[in-house]
Structure formats: structure tokens, C-alpha cells
Specification:
Mean pLDDT: 86
Number of domains: 1
Helix content: 25-40%
Structural class: alpha/beta
Radius of gyration: 17 Å
Number of helices: 5
Order of helices and strands: EEEHEHEEEEEEEEHEEHH
CATH architecture: 4-Layer Sandwich
Low-confidence stretches: 190-202
CATH class: Alpha Beta
Distance between the termini: 52 Å
Strand content: 25-35%
Length: 202
């Protein structure tokens, strides 16, 4: 599997081009900004761009869609909670998509936004703004932060520790690295340990 990271200073966001092999069908994840560099990346490798996966509806990750749709005939996949004003295929939690000769596991990880989806393709995890290198995504309030921490702990931290993490912002990471060094997740672990200690004392 080939994965290309395209970074844009517009929104400081990552867009990922994913394909089984050179010259095959390909998909984009979170086209926040579509520029000549991204188009050249697709065309120079002779990829047939057919699909787009959206992790959530925030503008920094979707703004390039309108440019992209003028150039390519793509099917867009996103959460039913996204409510985009254009046709798209709804992805459901715990479902598996088979597109571009790739099997894609869909995980709903709410907290940063209600529609936040994470896509697992082989040993790669595309996390959008749910989990980034060294931190978790921003949330509008304390309850949403608690939900995000719980969702990450239950849905992502239980995966193979060698899985690579490709976030919507910043550098790539690994499940094992986040388990060891992610400050927000370590805080969650301390809270859970403390609660367990309280239970033992009762």
C-alpha cells in the first residue's frame, strides 16, 4: 500500500493519498486544500482518483472538495452526522468498506465533533482530529473532552501497538508511542487507576 502525505499551509492540515499500488485506483482522505502540488502527485503517479473519505466536516479538512469535484468524478464517504449539502455515501461505525482494492474499517470516535470518524487501512490509522501526535483533538467543553478520551481509549488504544497513526494535523505517530507519551491519554490512565483504587477501598 502506498501512502502520500500532502501538507497545506492553508489550515495547516494533512491530506492523504492512498492506493494499493502505483497506477491503481486511489482515494483521498480529508482534502482540506487542493493545489497544483496535490494534483501533480495524483497525475504523475497515474492514479485513478475515485473516492474521498472525510474524517469530519470541519472546513480545514473539506474545503478542497469543491475544487476536487471540478477535476475528478469522485464518490465522497462521510458520517451521517456530517449533513453535507451535496450527495455522499454514509459510513457507519464498525462497518468495512471495500474500495480501491482496499479494505477500510470504519470507527466512530466522537468528542472533537459528533461526526468524527477514524479509518483503519491495513496497519495505518487515519485519525483526523481525534488523536494527534502527543495530544488529543480540541473539544468545545469538558463533557466532550471526557467523551473523546473515553472513545480513544476504548476504540483506538486497544489496537495493535505497531499501527501507524496519520493525523489531520502534525506528524505521524504510532499507537505504542501514544500509549507511552501522550499527556492527555496518560491523564486518563491515572484517573482510571485512581477510580480502581477507590473501588478496592470500599
Amino acid at each position: 500500500m502506498n501512502i502520500y502525505q500532502h501538507f497545506s499551509v492553508v489550515g495547516f492540515c494533512n491530506t492523504y493519498l492512498v492506493a494499493k499500488k502505483a497506477g491503481s485506483e486511489a482515494l483521498l482522505i480529508d482534502p482540506g486544500h487542493v493545489d497544483l502540488e496535490l494534483i501533480n502527485l495524483i497525475e504523475s503517479n497515474q492514479y485513478k482518483l475515485n473516492h474521498v473519505l472525510l474524517t469530519h466536516r470541519h472546513t480545514a479538512h473539506t474545503q478542497g472538495l469543491w475544487t476536487l469535484k471540478k477535476i475528478y468524478d469522485v464518490t465522497i464517504h462521510a458520517s451521517s452526522f456530517s449533513a453535507f449539502p451535496f450527495p455522499y455515501q454514509i459510513v457507519e461505525d464498525k462497518s468495512t468498506l471495500t474500495i480501491c482494492d482496499l479494505e477500510i474499517e470504519v470507527l466512530h470516535v466522537p468528542g472533537h465533533s459528533l461526526d468524527s470518524m477514524v479509518y483503519k487501512i491495513d496497519h495505518a490509522l487515519f485519525t483526523g482530529d481525534t488523536l494527534l501526535c502527543g495530544r488529543i483533538g480540541s473539544t468545545p467543553g469538558y463533557r466532550e473532552q471526557a467523551l473523546l478520551l473515553k472513545s480513544i481509549n476504548q476504540r483506538l488504544m486497544t489496537l495493535d501497538e505497531n499501527i501507524l497513526i496519520f493525523p489531520g494535523h502534525g506528524t505521524a505517530s504510532k499507537i505504542r508511542i501514544e500509549r507511552m507519551f501522550n499527556h492527555d491519554l496518560l491523564q486518563l490512565g491515572a484517573i482510571e487507576t485512581e477510580r480502581e483504587h477507590w473501588r478496592d477501598d470500599e
